[in-house]
Every structure is written in C-alpha cells, then in structure tokens.
## 1
Amino acid sequence: MKSKIATVTAGMVLGLGALWAASMPQAPQEYPPGELGRMVKLGEAIMNQTDTHPLTKDLVGNKLQCKNCHLKGADGKPGTGKGIGTFIGTAAAFPAYSKREKTVQTLQDRINNCFMRSMNGKRPIIDTEASIAMAAYITWLSQGIPMKMDTKRPCSPYNSARWAKNAKKFAAIQKKATHANYLNGKKLFEAKCASCHGKNGAGMGTFPPLWGKGKDGKWLAYNTGAGMSKLNKGAAWVQSNMPLGQGGTLSDQEAADIMLYVDAQPRADFDLKAHLLPKEQMGYYNSKVLDEHHSVRSNFKAFGLDVDAIRGDKVIP
C-alpha cells in the first residue's frame, strides 16, 4: 500500500513539473552580435567553468560550477533546464526584494551573493567583466519574457511560486524527521545518487561533490549559508531535478530523506563577513544584513531538530 501511495505521489509531482515545463519558453538560439554577444558567451563560459575560469577561479572556494545547480537543458546551455533553478525568465524579475538581505537586489547582486554561499568563496566586485558577463548571459535567456519585478523573492517567475510552495511543504515534512528518516535517506542516496556523486559525496568525474573535503583539506561543496544546505529548499530542488534526467520521480518523503542525509554531513560553516572582500576593494555591499552565521547544527535547529539525534552520533561540531 505504501509503495502504491508513493508511486501516485511521484506521478502527481511529475505531472506538475510537466505543466511548469510546458509554460516555459525555449531559450534563444542565436547570440547577439558584436561586443554584447562576446559578453553573453563569456558569461556562459563562466557558468560552465566557474571554479577554473581565469576571471572567477580565485573567487570560488570549492569544486562547483554554476551549472551544477542551474542545469543544462536540451540545448546544452547552463540554466536552460526546466526544473527549479532555471535561468529562463530570471532577469525579468529584477530588481526584486530579498528577505535574506532585506533590500531590493539587482541581478548582479543575486549572482554575486551566490559566490559567497554555493561557491563557498568571495563575493565578486560589481561591474567587473565577470559580473557583467554572467548577468548578460542570464538576461539573454530572458529575452521576450515580460518584466514582472518580484516583491517577495529574487528568482525567475518560473521558479518563484513553485519554489515557495515546495519549500513550505518540505519544511513541514522535515520538522518531523527522525533517525529512521536519516537511515532511509542514506539507503536512497546509495541507490539513486551515489553512482554519480560518489558514496562519500565527493563527486565523480564531471558530477559535482555534495559534501566533504578534498585531499588538500579544502571543502568540496556548498557551505551552510547556501540554499541547498536548508533542509526544505534542498529537498525542493532535488525533487524537481534529480536523479538527473528523471526530475519529478521522487516522492515527497524520498526527497526529504535524501536531503536530510546529505545536509547532515560535515560542511563549511558560513560567516558572512569572511566571504566579503575588503571594503576598499569590494565597494558598497547592498544588504542590511551584515552579520550572519550558519552551521550544520544551526540549520537543523531551525527545523527543531538535533543533528546528533538525527545522525545517531556526534560527528558534527
């Protein structure tokens, strides 16, 4: 009976995902001419090679690229996938209000802030070539889509409502999590995720790492300030996009348990000030929140959970 319910639930999720995909326009195929086209292509290259590209490698503190969360579509371009995380339409939502920063953010703000969290690195300087190029690429993917500034969150109109709805749904599920859910998440991860991301979460080949440190002692994946480190948001993204090419096939509980397991693994703490360049170099930082800290433990506590009880050990500091 439980298996049948899970199958029906997954089918409903897949159906909703198909509706979102059907309403989303195709990405443009022709680059703009001249210097604008060069910048769009440069932005695309940075999205694909973020941790190794000459313009951004010194700003990245792990082994991730933008394309790892903003998945490629059928055209092979980063951010043109149909799941949560698509870049299509994103530029049309800006300027947009951010509850996290408590200010109205520009598209460049949004991109640059991701370097501090998902990339576990330093915030790029606004109006540098890299910052402009990434914004140019994302804006190019929004051509022809009507502008509608978002008063609630800084993300694509094709992400905003489903992101909020699913984050709320998974928050309710994760608040009830137990050690049994963690063990089930480990089992599901090994069955559905480890073939790409590795049993130890360190990534395999071109597939990205999800936690842990490399041989050099440096963190491999996103830190505890990233959206993926939040138990509800990570589960919403995973259900929409994973397993790769099979987004929408995980039931609510499966997606929740997998991310409970993944986000209970050791990863870098987040201290906002440590990810900002010196003021004389960076310039103005568009945020009213200037002091922010997160850890694996505090991320679990936000859902009323004790990570030690969830894991069944005391590995997390």
Note: Residues 212 and 241 are 22 Å apart (CA to CA).
## 2
Amino acid sequence: MFMKSALASALATLCTLAQAANPLVTNIFTADPAALVDGNRVYLYVGHDEAAPEGKDYLMREWRVLSSCDMKNWTDMGSPLNVKTFKWAKADAWAADITKRNGKYYFYAPVEHDASKPGKAIGVAVSDKPAGPFVDARGSALVTNDMTKESDIPWDDIDPAVFVDKDGQAYLYWGNRVLKYARLKPNMIELDGPIHTVGIDNFTEAAYLHRHGKTYYLTYSRNFPEETAYATGPSATGPWTFRGKIMDMNKVVKTIHQAVIDFNGKSYIFYHNDKLPTGGEFRRSVAVEELHYKPDGSIAFIPQTAEGPAANPAPGCK
C-alpha cells in the first residue's frame, strides 16, 4: 500500500501511525530494525525496501526513523540519511545500528563502496538529534572489504552492531558468515586495535549485543533461512555459550534481523517479517514483540504475533 503522491508522502512523514498490530508500518515496506531508547522515547531506524513485487534483488536507498513513547503508536519522522550521505558509497542502505554518546548520535551504516574499494563497507554518520539529519563523520569508510580476509564474499562486512559497555568502552560487532568485532576509540569513529573473529554456532548475520543484569547477550541470525538465536557471556567479548533459538524463521522471507531494547520497565525485540500484502524476500515489514527473561536469565521463546505488545506509555507520554 504505497502512497501515490508527493503530498501524501509528505503528510505521512508528519503524522502518527496509530498501529494496533504488527507490522508497525503498512504504507511502505521496512526492514532491518535498529532501535535506540533516548529519554522517554524509542527511536526505530529501518531500511526502506523499494523493490517491485516482481523484484529479484534488494532495492534500498534510504533509512527511515519512527518514534514512540508507548510502543504502540509510532510517528514517522522521515528519512534522516541515505546512501548519498556517504560520498564514497554507491548503493545499498542495508542493516544499520545506532548509539548515543557525549550528546551525539552515531549511526553505523553498511553500504556498497565505490569502485576504489569494491564490496560492502561500514560508514559512520553523526547527528545532534536522534531523528537527524546525519552527516558522514569520517569522509571515508570505517571498515572496508579489504580489511577482512576470513571469507571471499564481498558482503561479509555488513550488519554493524554498536555497544557501549558500563565502563565506557565501545565495541562494534559485524559480519556475514564470520562474526567479527573490534573496539572503538572514544571518538566512536575509529577502530581501537585489531579486528577479532568469534566462533559461534551456525552464525549467519545480524549480531546484536545487549546486557541484562550482569549477563551479556549476543543475539544473531542463525542458519539460512534464518532463525533468531542467542548466546550469553560474562563480558562484551565473551566467551560465549550458545543458548538456543528464540524466534522461528519466517515463512516466506529468508531473513529476520533483530534488535533488543529495554523501555519503561519491559524488554522488547524488533524483527522483520513478510506479513503485508505482496510482501516477500525483498519487501519486508518490521514488527515488535515483548521479550521475557526466565528466572535463570535465559530468554523465553518469542512467537511472532499479529497483535504485538500492549501499550506501555512512558511518564509524560504524548
């Protein structure tokens, strides 16, 4: 259900999408969620799937951002950046991640590098506001395909996941088929030391790191078609113990791509599925569920639902 006019599209950017169910967005196709809690709001960053119903590949040129103060009503805040934000990039606004540090918002974006360094690369954009606009923080890629030699595929440097530990040390996880991580310098736009690889059960992509209590959780997409699985460890670098599957694969689309947050006393997991009419492999839709921890700290299995989580308004929510 795409809007037919520029005026309608502009109005949609300003309106509140009062969604009572999954998927969260129904007027366009969205994928690869990343989420940030800032104050009493959640900011949700998604890629925009633009492929035609008969499309044979991803067509993704921009990221979009939505926000909510109750996990039920979402406001479309437009596109804070796109591939052209990075002058050295030529295509593919793929799965990104974001964090806040020292009053600035850092957005880690995988794109297709130009011919000078062919293959997927990871750039960093920065903004003073969570909804952007974002600008290239470096003028060059943070990670390029020639920096990682563990596989011969040109798309192994994708799906960045940024995590700032309680001691202030920041880490960047990323990869396809081979999971990698590196420390980030305090400026958040340079690697601080070597790139490490991580052995983990049937890793495909979509690494995401979060902490609950004293335990670190590494969720990721496992196998292909993908299911969401996780491992736990005592630190941001492991060692990691595989814990199992927490969400089944989709019926049509082969990817799933999760992000996990805590908001207003509850935990949530975002992902994408194929539930919109004409949805599929290259026309995906972002959804959300509540995530529950068992008394032993393990994550309970999460079914995909049409209803999504109940409203959870933060103090002062409007």
Note: The chain has one helix and 22 strands.
## 3
Amino acid sequence: MRISAHPQAMGMALGLIGVTIFGVTLPMTHIALGGFSPFFITFGRAVIASIAAGLTLLMLRKRWPKGQGAMLLGAGICVVYGFPIFSTTAMQTMPASHGGVILGILPLLTSIFAALVDGERPGPAFWAYGLAGAALVVFFSIRDSGFNLQAGDAWLFLAAVTASLGYVLSAKVSRIIPGWEVISWALVITAPLSVVATLLVMKDGIQAPTPAELGALSYLGLMSMFAGFIFWNAGLALGGIARVAQVQLLQTFVTLAASAVLLGEVVSPSTIGFATAVALLVWLGRKARIA
C-alpha cells in the first residue's frame, strides 16, 4: 500500500500505534511512583528520552531545522514537562484506570487546538461525533459510583490541555520534518533544563527503586516520551490532526487493560461494550468532513 494513495488510513494506523504506547503511561507512572518522586519522574524520563533522541540525531547526522525553534520549544514545554508533571501528580492520589477515563477528552481538546492553531475546520458532524465520544467516556467514569471532582481531576485536565496543545504544535512541524525528528529536537532543546532539574531533585527524588520501578521509569522515557511520539506525530501530520486525534478515544481502554494487567485493577465486562461504542464513534468521525 502506497502512503501517498492512502494517507488517512496510514495516518490512523500510525496514530493507533502511538496511542497504544501512550495508553500504558499512567499504569507505568503508578509503578514508578513507588521508587521515585513526581518531579524526578518528570525530569528523569526527559533525560532518558533526550539521550536516546540526541544519539539518534547524531547517528543519522541530522541538522537543526532552521526557523522551527519557537514551535519546537513550545511543543517541548507541553509534552516534555507539562503533561508528565500534571499526570504524575494526579497519579499520586488517583487510580490509573480513573485517569485513563478522564484523559478521554484528549481528542476533543486536540481538535479544538487544531482549529485554533492549525486552521483546520471540522464540520458539524465531526464535532457531533467528537462530543459524543467525549460524553461517552465521561459517562463511563460516573456510571457506577458518581463523579466527585477532586484535585487529581484538575491535574488530569491540565495534563490533557498541555498534551493536546503539544500534539498540535508537534504535528505542524511534522509536515516539514519527520515526526521522529520533531520529538527528538524538542527533547534536545529542553535537555539542559531537564539535566539541571534532575540533579536538583535527585537527592530526595530516589527512594530505593525496585527493578520493576526502574523498568517503569525506563518505559516512560524511551517509549512514552520518545518512541510513542514518533508514530503519533507522523500520524497526525499524515492523516490530519483533528481526524487522527479521534483515535485517542481508544487510549482510555488501552489504559484500562494495562491497569488490569500491571496493577491488578478490575475491568468489568461492560468495558468491552464501551470500547466497541467508542471505536464506532472513531470510525464515524474519520468519515466526517474536515476542511
């Protein structure tokens, strides 16, 4: 299959790979919190990802993309610092499965920023499916015991806002240079701050981590912070930001599955029904017209 012939399908496929990687982030964060402080996790994972990104750029002899510094810095602040610190703070007091449901608003927020920043103009049908999907994941969160807003919910909302804005900024640059270069340069440009901050919080930020907790931190750095964005940025740029963003409605259910496997959290049979309904809305949203 030629990418040029099926850019939307390829964009959706790449986006799905990125979403699968991102969906394991909250459970891994829960595990990592057993051996590290939230600030050390935020900056430590950035240092790990920056090393991987820097080595990759050096090995492939890539040059700095002129004229993209401001956009890369903005994307870096959002995805390297904003989402990690807000989501990690939330995971101190909230189950990973709950966090995964709240982050179901990510596709809608990404579409909003795509309209504001990138000039995309989704039609009424697209917004209807997007709002329906967001409403579905909110209903999912309140169907059993009711939804009482807590501080953790506010942190998760801020995490969603910074992530969605970072996605849009990254996708804009991904139309000029490959998606893997975008996240790589964003990590490199923020690396000095990441290293300094890691050293500052290291003394109180490491609490005798176990191998599992070290592995979780490594996943957050190499996968959530680096590899996931390679697929996600490429997917957004290729298939359209607003349309591919709808795939992220499935991230909720990836998180629920990972929470069950890694943390032992119970996932009820009705989750399958919600996953099916959300998948249907994603498919319908893909069909909707976007200018």
Note: The mean pLDDT is 85.
## 4
Amino acid sequence: MHPMLNTAVKAARRAASIINRASFDIDRVKVTQKSHNDFVTEVDQAAEQAIIEVLKTAYPDHAILAEESGASSNLHDENDNVWIIDPIDGTTNFIHGFPQYCVSIALQQRGQITQAVVYDPTRNDLFTATKGAGAYLNEKRIRVSRRDKMADALIGTGFPFRGTDDLDEYMKMFKLLSERCAGLRRPGSAALDLAYVAAGRYDGFFEKGLQPWDMAAGSLLITEAGGIVSNFSGESDYLYNGNVIAGTPKVFAQMVNLLSPFAK
C-alpha cells in the first residue's frame, strides 16, 4: 500500500472509532442545523479533527479542504498536495441510526486525485485506491460491473435536500431513468454510492449539486476500477462543477446521452 494511502486509512479508522462510539447512544449526540435539511453533529467535527491530526502529523505542509472546517490557510495554487475530507458523508442517515454513511478522504496532487479512501464503519468495508494501481475493497481488487445495457442497470442517485428549487428537474430525470433502467436507489451518501459503482454493486450513479469532498475519493475508486466519471456534459470538471455521472463504460455513455440536456 502506498505510504500516503496508508496514512489516509489510519486517519479514516481513527475517525470511524469516534463515529462508532457515538452510534451506540445516538440520542445523546448534539445536532446543529446548518441550513434546511443540512445537519452537522459534534461527531462530524470530532471525526474531522481526528483525520486532520493524523494527516498533518504525517504531512505538515499539505493543505486541507474539509467539509466542516473548510480550507486550511495554506490552500492555494502553489500547494501541490490537498487532502479533501468528508468526516461523515451521510450525516442525516447517521443521526437517524440509518446505517448508510462513510468517511471519505482523498489526496489531490497538482489537480489530480491520486489517493482515495472510503470507509463504511457500519460494515467495516474499506474501499481504497491509488492512481494507476487499481481499486480495492478490503484489500481485494474490485472492478465495475460488466453490465452494458441500461435496461439491466441498477442506478444510484441523490435528490436535492437543502431546498426544493431543483426538485421538479430531478423528478424529470428520475422519470427518464426509471423508465429505462432496472431500478433507482437513493440511500443518501454520495461517497458510498460512488464506491458501490466501483465495486459493481451499482452500474451507474448521477447527482447534481455535490461538493468536492462528496466525490473526490469515490471518483478515483471508479476510474481505477475501470469505470468513467464526468459532469453531465461528459466533461472532466465534475469535481468543482458539482454535477456527476459515473458508471460502467457503456452504461455511462447511455446516461450521459440521457442526462446531458440537464447539464445547466
């Protein structure tokens, strides 16, 4: 395992230990509402600090972009190494005791994601990838599924949750895809959904309005597992565009064809 990936795994496991302890008595967790249907808990914050502590101890000059604490003071164009962190992707699930959430950590070097960890503490599933070295689940090599027809595909997605402005557009996309695929799922953790594409549990995924920390680790898992990731126009700027389509090569192509009219 690459030394930087090993450090990220250590950080993810450190965060997971905090998350797992809190999950045993979830009713006592302090919850704050950042905006409509957008929550943060003291567990998110403690897990994020634990991740940052591990990473900064190993790599004190690296920059940080994290969901709760934001960008570190040394995050600028000259910094070649940026850790992109989501301490709990799926916080709403977590505070309801719904076991679909994860820790997501990625390293971006000179604009490219090179290391990725998505860790599901409820199932002890550890997804990892190093650019050019493949994607793994619990140290076993994973590949995207072999399905190539939309009619056979299981597709993951996410719906707007901070507001309802885009809900009508999402319902149009939902109808368009549901009429053409084997099934649609919306569990509520984009990072874990993307990892599921890499592992062949989904054949595709799409969502709009995401943040870099939702996608960074999962996107590398998919490309290292033989899949494709883009924005809704089929271009590669999804990480900061916020709109993502991912899947097996042929399912991905069919999804882009269907969803490109929603690219705005």
Note: The two ends are 40 Å apart (CA to CA).
